[in-house]
Amino acid sequence: MSSFTSTAPHRRGVLFTALAAAVLLIGGGLWFAHASMSNKSADGHTANDGSEIGVMLDLADKAYHDKRLVAPVGSNVYEFYFSVLQLDPNNATAQQRLRDAFKPACDVVENTINSGDLDEAQRELYLLRQYDQHNYKLALLGSVLDAQRVIERRRHEAEAARLQAQQQGNE
Fold first, then answer.
1. Tens digit of pLDDT for each residue in 126-150?
2. 11: which residues sit within 8 A by CB, 6+ positions away?
3. Residue-level pLDDT at 170
4. Which distant-in-sequence residues (6+ apart) come within 8 Å of 48 by Cβ?
5. Which of 138, 116, 110 is nearest to 22 (CA)?
6. pTM for this predicted structure
7. Where do the H-state alpha helices sit in 116-135?
């Protein structure tokens, strides 16, 4: 018992350090991606040219500026750029911006998992897998998500057992 209590502050310190590092990485990634995405389009369509592709690029730029990389459903960077690629599969701007937003979007998925919103994390992970289904980072995030689901299931089972024992004790 005493070894558990002596390592608890150390674990909290390590957790805090890891969390601080993750926040710094996310902030740096978002700053870098924003700087990369503010360049003008190189393939003839601009965000404000009035074409369908231009409108979608404009919506994607606004979503990126508002940090809506993979959420909410239907109004995020990835879904807008996927729409551009449906209209023009070779659109270099959409392809480059999806590449630029990938790392920050992975960080968003990781934060969603860590916050406990596992269904939303599953949806976000699915969206990123549509872009690059064989990426190692997505495989790692999928494993973390699966582990969190196991932890959540065990927590629910323990709570159900506790409630059942409490109910039997009251009878």
1. 999 999 999 999 999 999 999 999 9
2. none
3. 81
4. 54, 58
5. 110
6. 0.67
7. 118-131
**Helix, strand, coil percent values for the chain (each to nearest 5):** 80, 0, 20
Residue 25: which of 104, 115, 92, 100 has the closest Cα? 104
Per the prediction, the chain carries an average pLDDT of 86
CA distance 107 to 118: 15
| Residue 166, phi then psi, degrees to nearest 5 | -65, -40
Residues 25 and 108: their CA atoms lie apart, in Å, by 11
**Residue among 106, 83, 81, 107 at smallest CA distance from 94:** 81
H helix count then E strand count, the chain: 6, 0
End-to-end CA distance of the chain: 33
Owning domain of residue 108: 2-170
Count of structural domains within the chain: 1
Q: What is the pLDDT of residues 5-47, one digit of tens each?
A: 556 666 777 776 766 666 667 766 666 666 655 544 444 555 5
